[in-house]
Amino acid sequence: MTRGYNFCSGPAMLPGAVMQRAQEELPDWQGTGMSVMELSHRSPEFVSVLEGAEARLRTLMNIPEDYAVLFMQGGATLQFSCVPMNLMSRGGAAEFLDTGAWSVKAIKEAGRYGETRVLASTKDEGYRRAVRADEFSVGADAAYLHYTPNETIGGVEFNYVPETGDVPLVADMSSCILSRPINVEDFDLIYAGAQKNIGPAGLTLVIVRKSLLGEVMHDTPSLLNYKAQADNGSMVNTPPTFAIYLAGLVFDWLEGQGGVRAIEGINAEKAALLYDAIDRSEFYRNPIALEHRSRMNVPFILADEQLNDRFLAEAGEAGLYNLQGHRSVGGMRASIYNAMPLAGVRGLVDFMKDFEQRHG
Ligand code: PMP
Question: Which UniProt keyword terms apply here (predicted)?
Fold first, then answer.
Protein backbone atom coordinates (compact mmCIF):
# COMPACT_ATOMS: atom_id res chain seq x y z
CA MET A 1 0.00 0.00 0.00
CA THR A 2 1.52 3.35 -1.06
CA ARG A 3 -0.05 6.29 0.68
CA GLY A 4 1.13 9.87 0.56
CA TYR A 5 0.30 12.61 3.03
CA ASN A 6 -3.07 14.12 2.20
CA PHE A 7 -3.49 17.67 3.54
CA CYS A 8 -7.05 18.06 2.21
CA SER A 9 -9.50 19.93 4.45
CA GLY A 10 -12.12 17.24 3.89
CA PRO A 11 -12.75 14.58 2.93
CA ALA A 12 -9.46 14.25 4.74
CA MET A 13 -6.79 11.69 5.38
CA LEU A 14 -7.90 8.71 7.45
CA PRO A 15 -5.55 6.46 9.42
CA GLY A 16 -3.79 3.88 7.23
CA ALA A 17 -4.45 1.23 9.89
CA VAL A 18 -8.19 1.87 9.55
CA MET A 19 -8.03 1.51 5.76
CA GLN A 20 -6.17 -1.77 6.20
CA ARG A 21 -8.64 -3.18 8.70
CA ALA A 22 -11.62 -2.13 6.59
CA GLN A 23 -10.02 -3.83 3.60
CA GLU A 24 -9.49 -7.06 5.52
CA GLU A 25 -13.04 -7.09 6.86
CA LEU A 26 -14.72 -5.89 3.67
CA PRO A 27 -16.01 -9.09 2.02
CA ASP A 28 -16.97 -11.00 5.17
CA TRP A 29 -17.71 -9.10 8.36
CA GLN A 30 -17.06 -11.27 11.43
CA GLY A 31 -18.06 -14.53 9.79
CA THR A 32 -21.50 -13.32 8.72
CA GLY A 33 -20.72 -14.21 5.10
CA MET A 34 -21.58 -10.60 4.17
CA SER A 35 -19.89 -7.27 3.98
CA VAL A 36 -20.87 -4.86 6.72
CA MET A 37 -22.32 -2.68 3.94
CA GLU A 38 -24.67 -5.53 3.03
CA LEU A 39 -26.04 -6.02 6.54
CA SER A 40 -29.60 -4.98 7.26
CA HIS A 41 -29.50 -1.87 9.39
CA ARG A 42 -32.08 -3.51 11.67
CA SER A 43 -30.04 -6.71 12.11
CA PRO A 44 -28.56 -7.38 15.55
CA GLU A 45 -25.13 -7.39 13.88
CA PHE A 46 -25.44 -3.88 12.52
CA VAL A 47 -27.13 -2.56 15.66
CA SER A 48 -24.05 -3.80 17.53
CA VAL A 49 -21.82 -1.89 15.09
CA LEU A 50 -23.77 1.32 15.67
CA GLU A 51 -24.00 0.89 19.43
CA GLY A 52 -20.31 0.01 19.60
CA ALA A 53 -19.39 3.19 17.69
CA GLU A 54 -21.58 5.28 19.98
CA ALA A 55 -20.15 3.67 23.11
CA ARG A 56 -16.58 4.33 22.00
CA LEU A 57 -17.39 7.93 21.13
CA ARG A 58 -19.03 8.41 24.54
CA THR A 59 -15.86 7.14 26.19
CA LEU A 60 -13.52 9.21 24.02
CA MET A 61 -15.44 12.45 24.60
CA ASN A 62 -16.76 11.61 28.05
CA ILE A 63 -20.35 12.27 26.90
CA PRO A 64 -22.81 12.20 29.83
CA GLU A 65 -25.95 10.04 29.71
CA ASP A 66 -28.22 13.06 29.49
CA TYR A 67 -26.90 13.76 26.00
CA ALA A 68 -28.13 11.91 22.90
CA VAL A 69 -25.66 10.88 20.21
CA LEU A 70 -27.25 10.91 16.75
CA PHE A 71 -25.87 9.56 13.49
CA MET A 72 -27.43 11.71 10.78
CA GLN A 73 -26.90 12.59 7.11
CA GLY A 74 -26.81 15.74 4.99
CA GLY A 75 -23.46 16.98 6.27
CA ALA A 76 -22.87 19.87 8.62
CA THR A 77 -24.70 22.02 6.07
CA LEU A 78 -28.02 20.36 6.79
CA GLN A 79 -27.41 21.03 10.47
CA PHE A 80 -27.45 24.75 9.62
CA SER A 81 -31.20 24.10 9.06
CA CYS A 82 -31.78 21.31 11.58
CA VAL A 83 -30.57 23.43 14.49
CA PRO A 84 -33.12 26.23 14.00
CA MET A 85 -35.89 23.75 13.16
CA ASN A 86 -35.26 21.96 16.44
CA LEU A 87 -34.36 24.87 18.72
CA MET A 88 -35.89 28.09 17.44
CA SER A 89 -39.44 27.37 18.51
CA ARG A 90 -38.19 27.77 22.07
CA GLY A 91 -38.66 31.47 21.24
CA GLY A 92 -36.31 34.42 20.88
CA ALA A 93 -33.79 35.09 18.17
CA ALA A 94 -30.98 32.76 17.25
CA GLU A 95 -27.70 34.51 18.05
CA PHE A 96 -24.41 34.06 16.24
CA LEU A 97 -20.73 34.85 16.37
CA ASP A 98 -19.43 35.48 12.85
CA THR A 99 -15.83 34.42 12.41
CA GLY A 100 -15.69 33.30 8.79
CA ALA A 101 -17.17 31.49 5.85
CA TRP A 102 -18.83 28.68 7.81
CA SER A 103 -20.41 31.04 10.35
CA VAL A 104 -21.83 33.04 7.45
CA LYS A 105 -23.45 29.97 5.92
CA ALA A 106 -24.95 28.90 9.24
CA ILE A 107 -26.38 32.39 9.79
CA LYS A 108 -27.87 32.52 6.30
CA GLU A 109 -29.67 29.20 6.60
CA ALA A 110 -31.04 29.94 10.08
CA GLY A 111 -32.51 33.17 8.70
CA ARG A 112 -35.07 31.10 6.80
CA TYR A 113 -36.67 29.99 10.06
CA GLY A 114 -36.76 33.07 12.25
CA GLU A 115 -34.92 36.07 13.56
CA THR A 116 -31.14 35.92 13.63
CA ARG A 117 -28.80 38.29 15.45
CA VAL A 118 -25.07 38.54 14.86
CA LEU A 119 -23.60 39.53 18.21
CA ALA A 120 -20.07 40.09 16.95
CA SER A 121 -18.18 39.70 13.70
CA THR A 122 -14.56 39.89 12.62
CA LYS A 123 -15.51 40.39 8.99
CA ASP A 124 -14.15 43.94 8.88
CA GLU A 125 -10.76 42.59 9.91
CA GLY A 126 -10.75 40.01 7.15
CA TYR A 127 -11.66 37.23 9.59
CA ARG A 128 -8.08 37.14 10.84
CA ARG A 129 -9.04 36.37 14.42
CA ALA A 130 -11.84 34.89 16.52
CA VAL A 131 -14.29 37.04 18.45
CA ARG A 132 -13.03 37.82 21.95
CA ALA A 133 -15.13 37.00 25.03
CA ASP A 134 -15.52 40.67 26.00
CA GLU A 135 -16.94 41.64 22.60
CA PHE A 136 -20.44 40.21 23.02
CA SER A 137 -23.09 39.37 25.54
CA VAL A 138 -25.82 36.85 24.92
CA GLY A 139 -29.44 38.03 25.08
CA ALA A 140 -31.33 36.43 27.95
CA ASP A 141 -34.23 35.75 25.55
CA ALA A 142 -32.12 34.10 22.82
CA ALA A 143 -33.15 30.67 21.53
CA TYR A 144 -29.46 29.71 21.38
CA LEU A 145 -25.99 31.01 20.57
CA HIS A 146 -24.26 29.39 17.59
CA TYR A 147 -20.55 29.60 16.85
CA THR A 148 -17.87 27.86 14.83
CA PRO A 149 -15.01 26.89 17.17
CA ASN A 150 -12.73 26.22 14.21
CA GLU A 151 -13.15 28.04 10.90
CA THR A 152 -11.81 25.51 8.42
CA ILE A 153 -11.24 27.94 5.55
CA GLY A 154 -9.76 30.86 7.47
CA GLY A 155 -7.74 28.74 9.88
CA VAL A 156 -9.14 30.57 12.92
CA GLU A 157 -9.82 28.70 16.17
CA PHE A 158 -11.39 29.91 19.40
CA ASN A 159 -9.16 29.55 22.46
CA TYR A 160 -12.10 29.60 24.87
CA VAL A 161 -15.70 28.39 25.11
CA PRO A 162 -18.31 31.18 25.13
CA GLU A 163 -20.27 31.65 28.36
CA THR A 164 -24.00 31.71 27.66
CA GLY A 165 -25.63 31.22 31.06
CA ASP A 166 -29.00 29.53 30.55
CA VAL A 167 -29.00 30.12 26.79
CA PRO A 168 -28.14 26.91 24.90
CA LEU A 169 -24.71 26.91 23.26
CA VAL A 170 -24.47 25.31 19.80
CA ALA A 171 -21.09 24.55 18.21
CA ASP A 172 -20.24 23.50 14.66
CA MET A 173 -17.25 21.28 15.47
CA SER A 174 -16.87 19.85 11.98
CA SER A 175 -13.16 20.56 11.79
CA CYS A 176 -12.07 20.29 15.43
CA ILE A 177 -14.12 17.53 17.06
CA LEU A 178 -11.93 14.95 18.83
CA SER A 179 -8.81 17.05 18.26
CA ARG A 180 -8.53 18.11 21.90
CA PRO A 181 -10.45 17.39 25.10
CA ILE A 182 -13.60 19.43 25.69
CA ASN A 183 -16.13 19.40 28.49
CA VAL A 184 -19.31 18.32 26.67
CA GLU A 185 -21.40 19.85 29.45
CA ASP A 186 -20.16 23.30 28.41
CA PHE A 187 -22.26 22.78 25.26
CA ASP A 188 -25.89 22.01 24.58
CA LEU A 189 -25.53 20.89 20.99
CA ILE A 190 -22.44 19.85 19.06
CA TYR A 191 -22.52 18.81 15.43
CA ALA A 192 -19.88 17.77 12.95
CA GLY A 193 -19.64 16.42 9.44
CA ALA A 194 -17.62 13.22 9.64
CA GLN A 195 -15.17 13.72 6.82
CA LYS A 196 -12.33 15.26 8.82
CA ASN A 197 -11.76 13.66 12.22
CA ILE A 198 -14.45 10.97 12.25
CA GLY A 199 -14.65 8.98 9.02
CA PRO A 200 -15.93 9.22 5.46
CA ALA A 201 -18.38 11.81 4.14
CA GLY A 202 -22.06 10.94 4.35
CA LEU A 203 -22.27 10.78 8.12
CA THR A 204 -23.00 13.71 10.42
CA LEU A 205 -22.67 13.48 14.16
CA VAL A 206 -24.98 15.33 16.54
CA ILE A 207 -24.52 15.38 20.31
CA VAL A 208 -27.44 17.09 22.00
CA ARG A 209 -28.63 17.65 25.54
CA LYS A 210 -31.77 15.52 25.87
CA SER A 211 -33.69 18.20 27.73
CA LEU A 212 -33.65 20.30 24.53
CA LEU A 213 -35.43 17.68 22.47
CA GLY A 214 -39.05 17.85 21.42
CA GLU A 215 -40.00 21.45 20.75
CA VAL A 216 -39.54 21.31 17.00
CA MET A 217 -41.16 23.53 14.38
CA HIS A 218 -44.31 21.78 13.25
CA ASP A 219 -43.24 21.22 9.65
CA THR A 220 -39.87 19.68 10.52
CA PRO A 221 -39.34 16.44 8.55
CA SER A 222 -39.04 13.43 10.88
CA LEU A 223 -35.63 12.72 9.43
CA LEU A 224 -34.40 16.07 10.71
CA ASN A 225 -36.16 15.88 14.05
CA TYR A 226 -33.60 15.19 16.78
CA LYS A 227 -36.21 13.74 19.13
CA ALA A 228 -37.47 11.34 16.47
CA GLN A 229 -33.89 10.30 15.69
CA ALA A 230 -33.08 9.87 19.38
CA ASP A 231 -36.23 7.81 19.97
CA ASN A 232 -35.41 5.59 17.01
CA GLY A 233 -31.72 4.94 17.62
CA SER A 234 -30.74 7.13 14.61
CA MET A 235 -32.85 4.85 12.42
CA VAL A 236 -35.82 6.93 11.34
CA ASN A 237 -34.67 5.62 7.97
CA THR A 238 -31.68 3.62 6.76
CA PRO A 239 -28.63 5.28 8.27
CA PRO A 240 -25.27 5.49 6.42
CA THR A 241 -24.26 2.06 7.70
CA PHE A 242 -20.82 1.74 6.16
CA ALA A 243 -19.80 5.25 7.24
CA ILE A 244 -20.92 4.46 10.80
CA TYR A 245 -18.87 1.26 10.75
CA LEU A 246 -15.79 3.18 9.56
CA ALA A 247 -16.33 5.86 12.20
CA GLY A 248 -16.29 3.06 14.78
CA LEU A 249 -12.94 1.88 13.42
CA VAL A 250 -11.57 5.44 13.61
CA PHE A 251 -12.76 5.69 17.23
CA ASP A 252 -10.97 2.36 17.95
CA TRP A 253 -7.84 3.72 16.36
CA LEU A 254 -8.04 6.91 18.40
CA GLU A 255 -8.43 4.91 21.59
CA GLY A 256 -5.31 3.00 20.56
CA GLN A 257 -3.42 6.31 20.20
CA GLY A 258 -4.21 7.05 23.83
CA GLY A 259 -7.47 8.94 23.26
CA VAL A 260 -8.22 12.61 22.83
CA ARG A 261 -5.77 13.85 25.47
CA ALA A 262 -2.89 12.06 23.75
CA ILE A 263 -3.87 13.17 20.25
CA GLU A 264 -4.09 16.76 21.49
CA GLY A 265 -0.40 16.60 22.41
CA ILE A 266 0.51 15.34 18.94
CA ASN A 267 -1.77 17.92 17.28
CA ALA A 268 -0.14 20.73 19.27
CA GLU A 269 3.31 19.50 18.27
CA LYS A 270 2.37 19.25 14.60
CA ALA A 271 0.85 22.73 14.56
CA ALA A 272 3.81 24.27 16.41
CA LEU A 273 6.25 22.72 13.96
CA LEU A 274 4.41 24.09 10.95
CA TYR A 275 3.68 27.59 12.31
CA ASP A 276 7.26 27.85 13.48
CA ALA A 277 8.54 27.04 9.99
CA ILE A 278 6.19 29.66 8.52
CA ASP A 279 7.07 32.35 11.07
CA ARG A 280 10.81 31.84 10.72
CA SER A 281 10.68 32.44 7.02
CA GLU A 282 10.20 35.60 4.97
CA PHE A 283 8.98 33.44 2.14
CA TYR A 284 5.83 32.04 3.83
CA ARG A 285 3.24 33.94 5.86
CA ASN A 286 0.20 33.13 7.99
CA PRO A 287 -1.97 36.19 8.71
CA ILE A 288 -4.02 34.90 11.68
CA ALA A 289 -3.72 36.40 15.20
CA LEU A 290 -1.32 34.18 17.16
CA GLU A 291 -3.79 33.31 19.91
CA HIS A 292 -6.47 32.28 17.40
CA ARG A 293 -4.46 30.17 15.00
CA SER A 294 -6.07 26.86 14.19
CA ARG A 295 -4.33 23.64 15.12
CA MET A 296 -6.23 21.81 12.41
CA ASN A 297 -6.10 24.07 9.34
CA VAL A 298 -2.99 26.09 8.61
CA PRO A 299 -3.33 28.53 5.72
CA PHE A 300 -0.20 30.19 4.39
CA ILE A 301 0.75 32.31 1.45
CA LEU A 302 3.92 32.42 -0.58
CA ALA A 303 5.72 35.76 -0.90
CA ASP A 304 5.61 35.26 -4.64
CA GLU A 305 2.14 34.02 -5.63
CA GLN A 306 3.49 33.27 -9.11
CA LEU A 307 5.12 30.23 -7.55
CA ASN A 308 1.86 28.70 -6.30
CA ASP A 309 1.43 26.22 -9.13
CA ARG A 310 5.04 25.14 -8.95
CA PHE A 311 4.79 24.70 -5.17
CA LEU A 312 1.74 22.48 -5.53
CA ALA A 313 3.23 20.44 -8.36
CA GLU A 314 6.53 19.84 -6.57
CA ALA A 315 4.74 19.04 -3.30
CA GLY A 316 2.64 16.48 -5.15
CA GLU A 317 5.77 14.87 -6.57
CA ALA A 318 7.07 14.61 -2.99
CA GLY A 319 3.88 12.80 -1.90
CA LEU A 320 2.39 15.86 -0.17
CA TYR A 321 -1.11 16.25 -1.58
CA ASN A 322 -3.94 18.78 -1.61
CA LEU A 323 -2.16 21.81 -0.25
CA GLN A 324 -4.07 24.38 -2.28
CA GLY A 325 -5.99 26.91 -0.19
CA HIS A 326 -9.74 27.30 -0.43
CA ARG A 327 -10.78 28.88 -3.73
CA SER A 328 -12.21 31.88 -1.85
CA VAL A 329 -8.89 32.81 -0.21
CA GLY A 330 -6.21 31.31 -2.47
CA GLY A 331 -2.69 30.54 -1.27
CA MET A 332 -2.01 27.28 0.51
CA ARG A 333 -3.64 25.43 3.35
CA ALA A 334 -2.37 22.39 5.21
CA SER A 335 -5.11 20.56 7.08
CA ILE A 336 -3.48 18.47 9.77
CA TYR A 337 -6.29 16.54 11.43
CA ASN A 338 -5.81 13.64 13.83
CA ALA A 339 -4.87 11.13 11.13
CA MET A 340 -2.00 13.25 9.80
CA PRO A 341 1.12 11.83 11.44
CA LEU A 342 3.92 14.00 12.75
CA ALA A 343 6.08 12.53 9.97
CA GLY A 344 3.73 14.08 7.41
CA VAL A 345 4.15 17.55 8.90
CA ARG A 346 7.94 17.04 9.15
CA GLY A 347 7.89 16.08 5.48
CA LEU A 348 5.96 19.22 4.62
CA VAL A 349 8.25 21.49 6.63
CA ASP A 350 11.37 19.95 5.03
CA PHE A 351 9.82 20.37 1.61
CA MET A 352 8.93 24.03 2.34
CA LYS A 353 12.49 24.81 3.43
CA ASP A 354 13.91 23.11 0.39
CA PHE A 355 11.46 24.88 -1.92
CA GLU A 356 12.35 28.24 -0.38
CA GLN A 357 16.06 27.58 -0.87
CA ARG A 358 15.56 26.79 -4.50
CA HIS A 359 13.07 29.54 -5.31
CA GLY A 360 13.31 32.14 -2.54
N1 PMP B 1 -18.84 23.68 8.88
C2 PMP B 1 -17.49 23.60 8.87
C3 PMP B 1 -16.72 24.24 9.99
C4 PMP B 1 -16.85 22.95 7.82
O5 PMP B 1 -15.52 22.86 7.80
C6 PMP B 1 -17.62 22.37 6.79
C7 PMP B 1 -16.99 21.62 5.63
N8 PMP B 1 -15.74 21.89 5.29
C9 PMP B 1 -19.01 22.50 6.84
C10 PMP B 1 -19.58 23.14 7.91
C11 PMP B 1 -19.88 21.93 5.77
O12 PMP B 1 -19.83 20.56 5.87
P13 PMP B 1 -20.59 19.58 4.89
O14 PMP B 1 -19.87 19.63 3.59
O15 PMP B 1 -20.45 18.27 5.61
O16 PMP B 1 -22.00 20.02 4.78
Answer: Amino-acid biosynthesis, Aminotransferase, Cytoplasm, Pyridoxal phosphate, Pyridoxine biosynthesis, Serine biosynthesis, Transferase
